[in-house]
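User: quick one - fold this with N-(5'-phosphopyridoxyl)-D-alanine bound?
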Amino acid sequence: MSSVVYLNGEYLPRSEAKLSVDERGFFFGDGVYEVTRAVDGHLFESGRHMKRLARGLRELRLEPSLSLADIEAISLELLQRNDITSGEGTVYLQITRGAAPRTHHFPPAGTPCTVFLSAQRFAVPHDKRATGVAVVTYPDIRWSRCDIKTVNLLAAVMAKQHAVDHGVFEAIFVKDGAITEGSHTNIFGVIDGELRTYPSSNLILPGITRDVVLDVARELGVPINETPFHTHHLPQLQECFLTGTTTDVMPVVSIDGVTVGDGKPGRTSMALYDALATRLYGAIPAGGR
Ligand code: PDD
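Assistant: Sure. Structure tokens for the protein plus N-(5'-phosphopyridoxyl)-D-alanine:
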């Protein structure tokens, strides 16, 4: 059965949802998106996602006719209509500057934004978490507004394909020697017992999972040092992990073929996963990690 999606005011079977060839998302990647986790029909950290979305809309001067409350209501409705009211799902949201004859500058005032949402079931990668994953480094060739969650994701596409070509889970970006983030994840290291991660700035996406993990690290008393770690620090890494809406906390056990720590998911990483899972599920999921 085809899933039901939302497009510009209508709920439609996915196969019937159509966009104009003049769509600015298609021409320019001129828009923003969010991916929100749904557990048992509830949106996880929806408030933080909506805040990040609002900021992105403001920065790009996008003015959809829908409010954030409307967007949350449509997300919940899609979970219902697609029968994802129990178990795991994700909601994808995309807002672009709409369809108009191609000009680099903004289209005429009054051009409606394109608003698209879909909901899908999600298989949590617990098996990968049990062993940890390998990653490869990739030059951070992105622009200097990585803090905006734009659909313009070409560098992320190239990086992730590089990871796939190397048979690993993720590519991590390196800028002037510093590890910034993954193609679709944030990254943390543990060095001398301290949690290290690239500071929130224009050069990374302020990940919602990153924020929640920093919160739970504070609660657990894990020392946090929001300064970048560099490629020359890699031999010193005791632990490393990725965070993201579709990744949770994912231990990294190898970088560019070199083993991290003892080659197993680290204790701090798994303690932080357990604390995140407690927020996601109310308890650590039955059947374990
Ligand atoms: N990606 N960094 C980048 C570049 C990302 O694209 C993402 C999310 C993250 C993690 O952010 P969050 O914790 O809010 O999911 C960090 C989404 C999941 C995607 O593109 O599918």
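One thing worth noting: Residues 267-281 form the longest helix (15 residues).
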